Fold each of these.
Amino acid sequence: MTILSINNVSKSFGKHKVLDNVSFHIKEPEIVALVGPNGSGKSTLLNIIANILNSDSGTVEILGKSNKDISIYNNYSYMIDNTVLYEYLTGLDHLKFICETHRLSKESIRKAVELMEIKHFINKKVKDYSLGMKQQLLFTMSILNEPDFLVLDEPFNGLDPSTIIKVRNILLDFAKGGKTILLSSHNLSEVDQMTSHIVFVKDGKLIEEDISKYQEDVYYIKVKNAKSTLNTLKDFDFKIKSDEIVVSTIEYKLNEIIGKINEVDEIIDIRKEIKGAERRYEELYGD
């Protein structure tokens, strides 16, 4: 069964065509990222998928059913922005409402609250929440029914680093358990850590890519005196950023670089990033 099927969908606002006859399919459980600049049509597409917004043409099916069939929400969930929250209600009130709507047990609330570790503010009114707290509540609401297909619009927005890591790990665990996740995000470093399957939105079209071919390992090597390595590393592609040497290289060459640095300086720390989404984004949207 196809998890998501978008067929020939178009949407215009006035004379501006945001989506132009786009089609896209998710056939197997995985994590897919939807990426593009502000105003490119990401949220428009997600709202059409959720049947919050009507398309001008085309159809959408979720888990083999029309997106207009409300029964899909038994196995599908959509995390939208915090405008759906009620300031005068508590976080717990929101979770109870979803439980009643989906006929879920109170145990569902306990499990989701414990998973997200939000017990310390769940009884406060939303008007007293920070942006990050609202995001955590929205995410908890979206996973309450343990959906097979989870769609998230900017889930990392406003989160501190520790919470970003927590949400990322939860989503990766969901994917390992056979769930499908479609997320839009401007946080390209997080996208790189979660998936290589990216759908870019550009000029009303969808560009679907496996960006693994663009991915490269970037090492940040912290030293005592970065400038002392200038001559030693002249044969390598590197940059100096404050007290760090930034090197893009394949892993087996790292030992050679480390050896060169150790000849003239002391290494304090090494950290690694994988960059692929950012590289491809710059190619598609750069000046």
Amino acid sequence: MNLSYFDFAFIGGDMRQIYMANDLLNQNYSVIAYGLDDPLLDSRCKRSPSFAEAMNTSQIIITPIPVSKDGMHIVSIHPQSDLTIGNLCNLLTAKHKLFGGVLPGDLKNHCDILNICYQDLMKQEEITLYNTIATAEGTIAEAILNSTINLHDSSCLILGFGRCARTLAEKLKGLCSSVTVAARSPMALSAAYAASYNTVNLSQLEEKIEEYDYIFNTIPALVLSKELLEKTRQNVVIIDIASAPGGIDFNYAKEIHRNAKLCLGLPGKYAPESSALALNNHILSNIRKK
């Protein structure tokens, strides 16, 4: 059987990978996909009948962000029973170059042993920084959807002051919110103060927590405990964008009727096309350098 060869193979994915494939096709690259189908996917994209064919007909393999949520199955909007990390490992060869986000340790170890070139897109600083834009905008969208009051002139608390928190604070400030940053690090508190935000040390949060209409958590560890949740306003909106399981006692929040929501994957949900273009720019730049 004669097989055509393609510039890129997409294995699984969400709407970001749909837009990535379409953008590459518009740049006259050839694309094959497995476990990725949607009415929005360009008809010029070859829908592979098998995992093996997609892998065997392209050197550049693009996987989702994250590649897997359970460490076993590859994320896909068009799930296939054989879309697993194990099968991906079995089909990868030294000719391949693999791109994906939050690559599982087993997958990276396999690539290292077989000398397979790979890149974790979420370890790339420019992508991480660009991602904060869509994350911040998605966070604000979730806050608006879950609240009955304006962000304008509201009192907002941001827990942490890393990359996502900084972009979120800037966007909230632009919407005329009063923004307070809570952190432990003196450096983070100083940076927040220098950017003209109110600040509070996390150790003193109990004294201030009842003042806020919105609370945004970016810290991937338990921050809002039962004791702190009890002191929040009854109508507070709490949006957690930290890595699962987040930094909030969600069971207790539900028990005391607080509106708390863990919001993951916001770039893929709210800005898949913009995110796709940024990812493609990085991947194409990386390939051309080689």
